[in-house]
């Protein structure tokens, strides 16, 4: 294991411990605020082809985002893990199509139509932690880095609770840096802070 990999492993452990200590009310309020701010953003309003993760219990709750995409008749795709380290965007018409899959994450069935990553305009992605410059700490599987490398045209937006922001993150050559980071209070776009509260 390289020094960089060891550093990331320690950061993941630290962030998971921090997530476990977050107040339940704070996590609910932060998820709600983040979803509201995302749905008011120019990036959301301009995008027709949207990719969004389905939040687990310890992640941002994305149900309101998924419902808004469907209600606004956007083409909505969500992740489906098809092999180790490999993820595809699969189009859904309803949240009812999702069922527990790998790691207990809700995902679409294997026969759901695939969305070409090159046609995506907005990718909404999770993190354990993020830095204001778009550096993202993921879970270590490389799923998102590999997938986002194919979605070259898409605006890549990381959702992160403000209490999980960190300036200590490291970035390797294969890591895909996000175009923006959205918290419950701030919108970090290319390193510039725009208050949204």
- Which sheet architecture does the biggest sheet show? 9 strands, mixed
Order of helices and strands: HHHEHEEEEEEEEHEEEE
Strand content: 15-25%
Continuous helix count:
5
How far apart are the first and last residues' alpha carbons, in Å? 42 Å
Overall, the morphology is: globular
Mean pLDDT, all residues: 91
Unreliably modeled segments: none
Question: What's this entry about, in short?
Answer:
The protein is an alpha/beta fold. 29% of the residues lie in helices and 25% in strands.
Task: Summarize the structure in words.
The protein is 29% helix and 25% strand. The chain has 197 residues and is of the alpha/beta class. Strands 6-3-2-1-7-10-11-12-13 form a 9-stranded mixed beta sheet, with helices on both faces. The protein has a two-stranded antiparallel sheet with strand order 4-5. 37% of the residues are buried. The mean pLDDT is 91.
Map the helices and strands.
Blueprint lengths: L2 H18 L3 H17 L1 H5 L2 E4 L10 H9 L3 E9 L2 E6 L7 E2 L5 E2 L6 E2 L6 E4 L3 E2 L5 E2 L5 H8 L4 E5 L20 E3 L3 E4 L2 E4 L2
Parallel strand pairs: 1-2, 1-7, 7-10, 10-11
Antiparallel strand pairs: 2-3, 3-6, 4-5, 8-9, 11-12, 12-13
Key features of this structure:
5 helices, 9-stranded mixed sheet, alpha/beta
